[in-house]
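pasting for ref
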Amino acid sequence: MKFEDTIKRLSAFIAGMFMFMIAAGFYLNMKGFGFDANGRLVLIKTAGAAELPRTMPTNIVIPGGRSLGSQKAPVVIYEYSSLGCTHCADFHLDTLPKIKTQYIDKDKVRVVFSSFPLDQKSLKAAMLASCMPADKYFDFINLLFKKQREWSLSFNTEKTLAKYAVAKGLSEEKAYACMNDENLAQELVSRRQRAIQAIKIQGTPTFVIADRNSREVIYGTPTFEEIKTLIDKKLK
C-alpha cells in the first residue's frame, strides 16, 4: 500500500470520527445531556409542561437580575432561564409578550430575568448579554432566543454571538473581552448556584411569582392562562 493511500484512508477515518462525534453530541444534547467544564457527560434538564406551583417561604432571599417593568409593580415574576433552552425560548417569545401587554405595560407586574446557563455556549451568551447597555438588554435577550438554533449549533459560537452584539451597537473588541472575562463567568455561575440553593431549581425554565405576602414557584413552561391565573389571584 502506498504511503499516499494510507494517508488518505487515515484522513477519511478521522473525518468520519469527527462527524460521528458531532452527530452524537447533537443527539445527546437533544436528549437532555451535555458536557460539564471537565468534559464529563451530565444530565441537563429542561422542563416541558409546568408542574403544579409550590409555595416558597417569603423570608428567603431570591437571586435577581435585570428587570422589565415598574419597580412599584405589586407582583414580581422571577424568571430563571438558559438562553440555550428551547422551552425558555418558547416562553420568552410567545408568552412573555402577552404578559407585557396585559400587565407589565400597566405597571401591575415586573419581570426579573436571571440567566441560568446550562452549558458553555449558553454561559457565553449570558456573559455577552450582561455587557449590553441597560436599554438594549432585553432586546438582545429576545434576539438570542430568536437566533437560538443558529448560535447554539455554530462551530464558532463566539464569532456568531459577537456578530449579534456588534449589530446592537457593542464593539467587537468589547464583545470578545466580555465573553472571555473569567470573573464575569464566575459571577454568573455563582448566581446560578445561589438560585439552586434558594429555589431548589432542577431545570429551566423556573419561575417565582411573588407579592408582599406570598410566593409560588413554577417548574416548567406555564401557558399564558396558567400564569395569568396566578397573577390575577395576587392582584386581587
